[in-house]
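Need tokens for this chain, all 424 residues.
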Amino acid sequence: MAVENIGGVYNVKIPGLTDAADIQAAFKAYHYGAYNSTATTAGIAADSMAYWLKTIEDDIALLEARPSSGGDATSSAPSAGDFTPSGIPDGYIWVDLDGAMTSSVIGATAIYNNNAPTSGLTSGVIWVDKDATTSTTGNPFIPQAIIAAKGDLLAGSANDTVTVLTVGSNGQYLKADSSTTSGLTWGDPGDLTAVSAGTGITVTSGTGPIPSIAIDTATVVDLNTAQTLTNKTFSFSSNTVTTTLAQLNTAVSDADVASLSGSETLTNKTLTAPAISRPTITGTTQIAQIIESAAVTSYSATGTAIINVLDQGAVVYWTGSASSNWIVNVRGSSTTSLLNTLTTGQSITIANLVTNGAGAARYLTSIEIDGSSVTSSTKWQGGSAPTSGNTSSIDIYSITAIKVANTSTISSAFTVLAGQTQFA
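Here are the structure tokens for all 424 residues:
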């Protein structure tokens, strides 16, 4: 059977139109360009599907193998035929490995030459110094080779000129020095400018590394040295005393002014002592009388009534008639617990005065400390807690709380002694 071309742009083979139909033969002709399969790519006939696939594969391989747009260093200029599709791509840079500067320069070409080009220049020309050394003169970059040791510094020796300043010794500092090539030099701390003495300042070592200075007590007053001041004027806060020391050197008469050391009698004087919050008195103390404050309010006992002993004191008197039985909650204050107010071995006693009217006789049913019940640790006068109050009278409940243990469990931390007394 014969084969013939089909297609106008990319021809492929098909069986002759006059031959009998054979689908397998048609596929072979279409794929290989003949009725026989091929074992190698060399046997692929032109104008076949396999031929065109092989052409695409070859083109891809050439594209992958061709130089990138950032260029080759070769002896020959690139040829348009070296690229697929044909033509040198935009931005491609070729470095002439052994070329010399000519009068005609191709745009966008790198010149690999010993000397910078001076003629035939055009936009896009790049010159690579063929015989560059470690010197930075005339180079647009500073090579790493210029640095010889750790700590070396680059410094400007003139306009557009770089030099290396070799690292100094440990402990030295860098300072300006116009006499050196770099304008810099390494110096020792000992050559710092000496410290000069001033008014009232004595210098014992003016040079470094740490100058030694001291106050001259012969001319300057300090806080620690005994000194004699002559003809000085003193100003004391808002009350100013202006006089000479000779005028101040006069004794004050004890008959006119009370002193801290003399035995004197004060007549018609009012002495105001500063307020003292919770003083601690130790040892044997004799006190003639103490006036104690009482917190008197029109409160009517009901529910849970709070007594803040640090704010209200030891005597709390409610003048309003109790409206129901009540519970007393004893605290230090609204922000401080009684547990934290007392230490182990300390106690506090309060008297709670409660008014009962002519109606029902209300009474205290239980005691709390810091909001926790201490019923289990409360011992009542007479052996039992009250079961009733007294009408038309004032019942006083005496409560003594003794801190017996340092624990956060309130009922274990306190022993409470309580009693009820009627005042009609």
